[in-house]
Each structure stands twice: as C-alpha cells, then as structure tokens.
Design goal:
By secondary structure, this protein is α+β, with helices and mostly antiparallel strands. The chain is built from nine helices and five strands, in the order αααααααββαβαββ. Helices cover 48% and strands 16% of the residues. α2 packs across α3, α2 crosses α6 and α6 packs antiparallel against α7. The termini are far apart.
C-alpha cells in the first residue's frame, strides 16, 4: 500500500507541475512518464520512461522509433507503443493541417516544418510527392516509395502518371536523408531533372525538390538546380 500511495502521489505531483507551464520545464523522461500514465494506469512507470530515453537518446527520437525497437525495452509492450506513436501521429497531423487548403507556395515554412516532422527521423529513405492544383493548393500528399538507409527507387513516369490521375497542375517532390545531411547527391540531381523533364512535356510544373535531414533541409530551387 505504501508503494502504491507513493507512485499515485508522484503522478498527481507530476500532473500538477505540468498544468503550471504545460510541460515547458519538464525533462524528456518526465514527458514520457505522462504518456505512460495512460498506458500503465496501475504501475510505476518512471523507470520505464528513463529506460526509453536512455535507449533512444531523446524524446523526439523515441517518438520516431520503430515499434519493434521500442518493444526491445523491458516493460514496453503494445500499450506503450500506442501511447507513444499516437503522439507522433498527432504531431504529423497538426503540422499537415498548416498546409492544407492554403496555397503551398505562400506557406512554405509550414510545409518545411511538416516535412521535417513527418520524415526527418525516418531510418529509411522515403520519396514523397505533393500534388497541387492550379492555385497551388494541396490535392494529395503521398509517399510513393520507401527504400533503404541511403537509396529510394524513383520512377519519373509513375510520378507524372499519378499527377495526371489526380488532375494536378504542379508537384513538389521530397525525400529524406537518414544520414542527417540534406545535401543533394549526383543521383538526386539526375532523378529530379528526369521528373522535371517528364512533367514539363505534359504541362505539369515541378516547383521544387526538398531534401529533409536532421541537420536541416535543401531546396533544389534555392540551390539553382531547378
């Protein structure tokens, strides 16, 4: 009973602290603790929260971790994964809401923020395409390919074919570099030029290609590559 009273009192104190500043003064493991309260309502979760942060290094890296890797931490099961990954899903959805129903080119930093949240910590390369209408409002946001840690196969004809299916007038292509370095490779440059040339022949504009990494992002348009 004493142990139970201790962790229940600890939970209430943590909640009260959170309400004072919405977690601004919390350490990473304390934020994880709050989430784990929901996943494990009747057990002490502070040790698990600390173990999770120790394993993945930071709150952000934990949220982006693969569920199978999370399960490798003792005490972390499906309930833990649902609690953690639901926060990641919410963050992506909130960031995406900032670019919906707005001309994408006039809300560029919100777009970059969304891409960073969605892709920067992925451990495999993803190739994403944003399909835009004549007013540059988002029609569809699709991950077309997922590859390895340093390569994603991209098929320019398939990108343009999908744009025609959606009646899109313009594209923004995006992929991540799991290495963290957003600088484009020669292969990235060649692939982007192929997409641009294929799209142009059918009257579709490629506005930009973004590379997202933990260290920042690169814009082909800003670099003079488009």
């Amino acid at each position: 009973m004493d142990a139970k009273a201790h962790y229940l009192g600890h939970r209430q104190r943590l909640r009260n602290r959170f309400l004072k500043d919405m977690g601004a003064g919390f350490s990473d493991y304390e934020l994880v603790e709050l989430l784990l309260f929901l996943a494990h309502p009747r057990t002490e979760v502070k040790p698990l929260a600390k173990d999770l942060i120790a394993r993945f290094g930071s709150y952000a890296d934990l949220m982006a971790a693969n569920p199978a890797e999370i399960k490798e931490v003792r005490g972390a099961g499906d309930s833990t994964i649902v609690a953690l990954k639901s926060v990641q899903a919410a963050a992506v959805r909130l960031a995406r809401a900032e670019v919906l129903s707005k001309p994408v080119l006039s809300s560029w930093m919100q777009l970059v923020d969304y891409c960073y949240v969605a892709m920067a910590r992925e451990k495999r390369e993803q190739f994403r395409v944003l399909f835009l209408d004549k007013k540059n409002v988002l029609i569809a946001d699709e991950v077309q390919q997922t590859g390895t840690v340093d390569h994603t196969p991209v098929y320019p004809r398939e990108v343009v074919k999908r744009a025609l299916e959606l009646d899109a007038s313009a594209l923004i292509t995006i992929h991540n570099h799991p290495s963290g370095d957003p600088d484009p490779s020669d292969e990235d440059i060649e692939m982007t030029r192929e997409i641009q040339e294929t799209a142009q022949r059918l009257g579709i504009v490629l506005h930009d290609h973004l590379i997202i990494g933990r260290k920042g992002h690169s814009s082909f348009k800003s670099l003079g590559l488009l």
